[in-house]
Each structure stands twice: as C-alpha cells, then as structure tokens.
Amino acid sequence: MYNEKVMDHFQNPRNVGEMDNPSGVGEVGNMKCGDIMKIYIQVKDDVIEDIKFLTFGCGAAIASSSVLTELVKGKTLEEAEAITNKQVADELDGLPEAKLHCSNLAADALQNAIKDYKEKAASN
Amino acid sequence: MERIYLDHGATTPMKEEVLEAMLPYFKNYFGNPSSLHLYGRESKQGLDQARQKVAEALGADPGEIIFTSGGTEANNLAVQGAAKAKASKGRHIITSSVEHHAVLDAAHYLGENGFEVTFLPVDKYGRVDPEDLKNALTDQTILVSIMTANNEIGTLQPVEELGHICRESGVYFHTDAVQAIGHMPFNLKEQPIDMLSLSAHKFYGPKGVGALYVRNKTPIKQLIFGGGQEKKLRPGTENLSGIVGLGRAIELACQNIEEKKQKLTRLRDKLISGLLEIDEVILNGHPTERLPGNVNVSTLYVEGESLLLSLDLKGIAASSGSACTSGALEPSHVLMALGLDHQTAHGSLRLTLGESNTEEQIDYVVEVFQETVERLRKMSSVFKK
To answer: What is the pTM of this model?
Structure first.
C-alpha cells in the first residue's frame, strides 16, 4: 500500500525526538482521527537551523513528518512558510488516497510552529 | 527471515487434503451438477457428498444446507431473506452493535427500507446481555441475529441462551458462526439456532465458498433470481470444486476439536500474558470467554497501523482495528462499542493464532512486539515518559 520512499521514512525516520528549548512548537491533529503531530523548530537569523518531530499515528503520518523535517531544515522562515501538505506528499512520491487528508498534516504542524515562534519573538 | 502468520481470523492457509479433494472437480468431474447425463451425475454426487459432510459436522440434515459464495452472502441471505419472508408478520429485527458488517449493514439497509432495527449494546467485554434481548423483543419482532464469536475481539456470545429466548417467543434466531467453526462443536438438532452462517476459508478451506444452515420449515426468500439450485434460495451453477473443498475442510475442522482448542488456548494465553507484561498494554475482549486463537490488545501511545507495519517488517503478520487500516476515519465499531476511548481503539492490534503456530514463535513475537512498542513510543507525540 505504501511506496518504498514512504516505507523508508517510516522505518528510518529523520529528525525524530523532542527538542530542548525550541524556538517554536506546533501541534496538529486529534485523537479522534488517530494522528497527532508535533513539530519543534530552532530558529536563528530567520533560518530554521534545526527541526524535530514527534508523531502518534499511522505509517503515512510518521513518514510525512519525517520527510517534512528534511524539506525544512536550513530553509528561511519565508521559504518554510510556503511549504504545503501537498508538497510533503509529493516529496514522498505520493500517499494512498485515504491518507491524504487525515495523515498528511505535517506542513500544518510546521506552520503552527512558525506562528508560535513569531508570537514568542513579538512578545520578547 | 522467518515469517509468522498471526492473521488466521482474516483467512487460513488451505490444507493439502482439501486441495487433493478439490482437484478432480477441476479436471475429471467438470459436468454441471444439474445435467442429467453421467458427467452431470458425477458432479452431482460430489455436491451431495459435500452437503452430507457439512450436515454431519453441524448435526443437521443435508437438506438444511444452502451453499453460498461465503460468509458475507450467507449472512445477507439469512438477514434479508428472513426479513423478506416474514415482513407480513412483523417488521422488527434485533441484532447487536458488534456484528460483522455483513449483518450490521444488511440490518441498516432494512432499517432504511421499512423495518425497525434494534442494535443491542454490549458490555466492556463485548457480550450481549440476554436480559437486553428479552426487553427488546416485541410482538413485531421477526428475527434476531447475534454472532457466535466476534471476528475482532474473539468474544463468545451466550448463543444458547439467546436462542432459547427467541424460541420461547417464536422468533427466528440466526447466528454468524464464521469465526467459530472448528473451535467449538455444533449440534444443531439440539441447539436453538434456526440459521447459521459459515465460510470455508476460515477453517483451512478455499475462499469464495460458504454455507447457510436453514432449519427445516424456516421461511426465507431468495435474494437473487435464476435457476433452481440450492432450493432456489441461491440460484446459479454451483462452485463445485469450492463446495467439495468446503466439505472436506469442515470434516477435518470438526475432528479433535477439544484437543486443537486446548493447544490454541495454551498458545493464546501465553501470548496474552507475554504482551500484558509490557507497560500499558491492555487486553480487548473477554479474558476467558473468547475464541481459542484470538488475541486483541491495545498499546497506549502507539497507533495500530504503525505497529502492524513494523511487525510486518519483522515477518509477523497481524491486523488492526485502527481507522488507518480500514480507510475509514473512525476506528472499528466493535472496539468503540466496548466503550474504549479513541486512543485505545486506534492502538489495537489483533493476532489470531492457528494450527501451524508454535511456542517458539510466541516467544519471538513477544520480544519483537516489546522492541517495536518501545521504538514507536519514543517517537510518539502523546507518550509521557
């Protein structure tokens, strides 16, 4: 059901784990549908220097979180803000139709993390 | 890599003896059982012998066995066929909230087409309370359909008791026994069951063939139209090789039931106790009143599909009631009917044992399961260390 690239990211997820003192944290999903993704970012001079994720969810949810972190690492905030869920799915060479809506939310979690960072930066 | 098959609830590998019994019906005996010539008579003999075997295994008369394309069709024929036949007497049907979709969705369909349907609740183990059935019966009730054993959590229903209640009220009782054949003896002459569904591939027979037992004088109507086969209840040229395979498979399945049950129960309980030693793994279904080969656990903080995929990569085949494995947005209706919260339901995994499984395999599965759970929990957004 999943292609090789998805299975590779599922088996060997990149940048997995919690982050100490992140610049921003974003979460998306809910337990009802069974996918909860959390993205941590470390920002310096408007560049996402480090990114980590924690995900409760199916194979697609874990793989899309993992591939997102690869897409984002080293990008400017402006570039990262342009990343969409569709791009994440494309980067994985596609996901099964049923997974496109419920499990492919990593970019939304990233946008929440960037928003969190900006709010924190504004209040400092 | 060793491959371990723990999905016997989905399907079983066909036995060599069953294949041997079927082969002549692909080659030598190709006649249409309805034909009057020798070719036809040879095929008809195979059909009759298979029917005899199914009847013997169930303690029924051969005339009470209707061959179908499997459990789904048998369930539909029972539920819809009885509703059609009895609609003039009443329009109320009772079933449970944990039935297989073949019964559940047929009942919903009837509910949208002029029938009233009661879906009985279950307790936290998945059992129907016979008192609830008594209270649900009305003078309009024409059919009760409650499964013998649940396909997801293995819970056994008090079918005898439920059947007696129906009989006292003059209401027909159907049971979906698709998961139960080979795991418990049936003697339908003595049991208060009017209809019973079964499917060959669940007990080491071929796919695409099953049967509905219909007690003599139980009125049901056909769902499809055609020739006069299967007393007109299931028209169409018979799946002869499949039916012969079903006959041989049920004959084998019903030999030494007690011995096989003890062996499977021992393996099951070993697997359950091994898995429950892992932190925050819980058993779904009843601790003892469950199918001998069924294990269903929920692993907190881990989603079922990712667990299933990880085990598959280690050669272990299982299934899950998580939403993600079905393409639906909600987890399985059975797990939700138990009153589980979403996380517990999404974290469910079903491991169903069969004749080829060994103690060594169970040890290996528990070990891999533990490693996998630890790994997935480390990447889980909801795991609190």
So the answer is: 0.95
What tokens does B131 get? 């008192």
**Domain match, B83 and B195 both:** yes
Q: Are residues B356 and B234 in the same domain?
A: no
Which class is A4-118 in CATH? alpha beta
Matching residue, tokens 């059992």: B127
Q: Is B374 inside any structural domain? A: yes
pLDDT tens for chain B, 385 residues long, are: 889 999 999 999 999 999 999 999 999 999 999 999 999 999 999 999 999 999 999 999 999 999 999 999 999 999 999 999 999 999 999 999 999 999 999 999 999 999 999 999 999 999 999 999 999 999 999 999 999 999 999 999 999 999 999 999 999 999 999 999 999 999 999 999 999 999 999 999 999 999 999 999 999 999 999 999 999 999 999 999 999 999 999 999 999 999 999 999 999 999 999 999 999 999 999 999 999 999 999 999 999 999 999 999 999 999 987 766 555 667 899 999 999 999 999 999 999 999 999 999 999 999 999 999 999 999 999 998 6
- The verdict on A39 touching B (C-beta cutoff 8 Å) is no
Which residues of chain B form beta strands (DSSP E)?
A: 4-5, 65-68, 92-96, 116-120, 141-145, 172-176, 195-199, 210-214, 281-283, 294-299, 316-317, 348-352
Q: Under an 8 A CB cutoff, do B324 and A34 touch?
A: yes
Please check whether residue B201 is in contact with residue B64, taking contact to mean a CB–CB distance below 8 angstroms. Answer: no
CA distance B253 to B260: 9
B324 at A interface, C-beta within 8 A:
yes
Q: For residue A87, give how far its alpha carbon lies from the nearest alpha carbon of chain B (Å).
A: 21
Backbone phi, psi, residue B233, to 5°:
-75, -25
Structure tokens at B5: 């098959």
| Residue B254 a catalytic site member | no
Residue extents of the structural domains in chain A? 4-118
ipTM of this complex prediction, to 2 decimal places: 0.94
- Answer whether B338's CB lies under 8 Å from B124's CB: yes
Domain-ending residue, one of B253, B284, B304: B253
In chain A, positions 61-100, which contact chain B (CB-CB < 8 Å)?
61-62, 98-99
Give me the domain span that covers residue B209: 16-253
Q: Residue B355 and residue B262: Cα distance in Å, rounded?
A: 11
Claim to verify: residue B56 and residue B142 sit in the same structural domain: yes
By the CB < 8 Å criterion, does A104 face chain B? no
Q: Does residue B7 lie in a domain region?
A: no
Domain count, chain B: 2
